[in-house]
Amino acid sequence: MAWIKVDAAAAIAEGEYQLVTTEDDVELLIANVDGEFHAIENMCSHDRGSLEGGCIEDGEIVCPRHGARFCLRTGEVTAPPAYEDVDVYPVRIVDGVVEVSDEPAD
Amino acid sequence: MSLMDYTDQWLSVVQPQISQGSSWLADLRQGAVEQFATQGLPHARLENWKYTDVKALAKREFVLPKNAATQADALVAETSLALDGIRLVFVNGLFSAAHSQLDALPKGANVLPLADNANVAKTLLGQVAAANFSGFTALNLAAWQDGVVIDLAANTVVEMPIYLQFVSTEHTDACLIQPRILIKAGVYAQATVVEHFAGAEEAANFTNVVTEVDLADGAQITHYKLQQESVHQYHIASLHVQQQRDSRFTSHNICLGGKLARQDIQVELNAEGAEVNLNGLYLGNGRQHLDNHTLVNHNAPHTNSNEDYKGILNDRSRGVFNGRVVVHKNAQKIEAHQSNGNLLLSDKAEIDTKPELEIYADDVKCSHGSTTGQLDENALFALRSRGLDEAMARGLLTLAFANEVIDRIEIPAVHDRIELAVAGRLPEKFNLKGLV
């Protein structure tokens, strides 16, 4: 397992997110939810499209196409038309820099 | 950024190659450049690419390969199949005369490296594979660097397999490898062609290969595609076949390697009596993404197609199978059978399978089906009751599933290599490599 540097924690404002891609070509969305950082695979399990462009509401990311929702903390799906959870990835902050694991949380 | 935004970046990589060749070739390449500029790389909104996202590939930077044949002796020897006879070796897509052997050819058979013999291929290049098939096909036509032309005169029978070995080496800068393979079989000609892609374990190149096959009346070609590239490699391939009366094409497509691998097969059955057999196996581990798309067009009456693809997916790997058969209006009395079976060895593995049958004629015999499941608990119990431990029992059942495809392979050297490779790639807890 390796850690990928994302950005300075201060650079990702509350309610905002950034994207990084792992060596395995998995695109991750790293979001700041009320000062806590969470990483989720940037893929809606409904149509495999990107979640980029969706807004964050109540700790959930809303898919910009059909409105499916995923909990940013657990990856759990909370609204149709998606029915499968997506992977979440461990996040840590080292010296004010957000880092994300390249392996999903179990 | 959309995928179209990367089009210029890709064109600048291949720019030095576009003007290569005589004027007819330069014109052909220029047409393909324009096609690629219009089409770009395929995006997930296209139905055919819905399950395979090439965005990560599009973002990567590649360079055109330079000749590295002299440093690849060990790798060529290590990855080679034990086949006697005609052999053409390509290191990073470029022909290596030192490793190749072309002297066992019978009269009437012309097998040549493409770069130095492009004029021989003037009437073949781009005739079966349309440049607009996908952005990758256009990119290949615009900037292929080398490849093979196999031209068999009428009634020529090549007994020995024609072995095309493609070796991918490790580089600081990942290479864009674009081979072009052209096969033309005259009336009643017969041959077996083995395309084998392998390489260094750390190789992270991108192979974009296009194969065109043209079969005249009564011709028979057996085509093996064994893809064993590293798990860091990207591999996009398309095989285009057109068949005339009473011709037979048999494809064995074994897909084991690649981080992202996609194989398209498109077959046109253009005259009565033409028959195609498509046999395929894909085995994914880790985070591999393996996609197989096949399309068979029954354009004439009394044509036959048989297709059997099997997939084994472990860890977080993803498989895609899309098998489309189109029976056109005048294609009466045809027979088309298709099946796809998938074995999921882990909860996180995924398969998207879509058999499609479109029938516009009214007197045909067709079947298609797809299954996805886990190992049969009753079969497991039966093996365990005979004293096998669980890991061994699971391994044997998985290998037996794969063997339904592997056992159709008629060349012993290819059969054994594939069986060994499959046994060695099963989950570590039931690795059967020592047993086969």
TrEMBL record, chain A:
Residues annotated as domain Rieske: 4-100
Keyword ATP-binding: no
InterPro entries reported in the protein's UniProt record: Rieske_2Fe-2S, Rieske_2Fe-2S_sf
UniProt keyword Lipoprotein, yes or no: no
CDD domains: Rieske_RO_ferredoxin
Pfam families named among the record's database cross-references: Rieske
Keyword annotations from UniProtKB, A to Z: 2Fe-2S, Iron, Iron-sulfur, Metal-binding
GO molecular function, one term: metal ion binding
Entry-linked Gene3D superfamilies: Rieske [2Fe-2S] iron-sulphur domain (2.102.10.10)
Protein known as: Rieske domain-containing protein
Species of origin: Oceanospirillum multiglobuliferum
